[in-house]
Amino acid sequence: MKYFSYILLFLLAFSSCKSSKKMVLSPMTKYSGKIIEKSDNNCIIGMDDFDKVTRLRVIGIKNERLFTFTHEKLQEYFTDRPFIDAYGSILKNNIGEFFLSMTFIIDNKYIKTGYNGISTSNMLRISLINNTNIFLTNVLNDTGTIDRNNSIITYNGIFPIKKKDVKLLEKYEVNKMGVMWNGGFEEYNVYNMDFAIRQIECLNKLKFK
What we know:
Blueprint: E1 17-18, E2 24-25, E3 44-50, E4 57-61, E5 64-69, E6 84-93, E7 98-107, E8 123-128, E9 133-137, E10 145-147, E11 152-161, H1 163-169, E12 174-181, E13 184-189, H2 195-205, E14 207-208
Parallel strand pairs: 2-14
Antiparallel strand pairs: 1-3, 3-4, 4-6, 5-6, 6-7, 7-11, 8-9, 8-12, 10-11, 12-13
């Protein structure tokens, strides 16, 4: 699968830099970790790298928290942090393809479960406020990274976004996300509803090769 090489993106350290409306990024300049002029909507570049397999340049907006979730019956145990903490980032490569990068951090201190991971071909359903659903397919198989010191397990997924869906995401806010884990399907309310609108707008302002 041509997108599978984007697993390399998760090896990158996400750091901050700020972009301007007319910023042109040259192939020889690395913008990750550098401060650039602030844009109107405060978009921040989180990563800027060349994929070693496809030789395509990929730029991603810094991860933003999209939602947290704790089962109602478990809330008495999770008073200092949520059961699930989810972060998202929109990526774009230099041939105009968009991707959604998702990071899920699950607290397994009390509940020894990680939903059995998230596999290649697992679905992500995005529900928009106009009652439209977008279905994305994961291309990254992740069995999870366990941090025993902090009692958490982290999963990453990467989801190519079709052009028709990019048009929807840059127009309508996200209301809910449903994740097909290996252990079953679960839906979550998204609180950072305009993240995709802002991040796609930021990426469309950048001209890069």
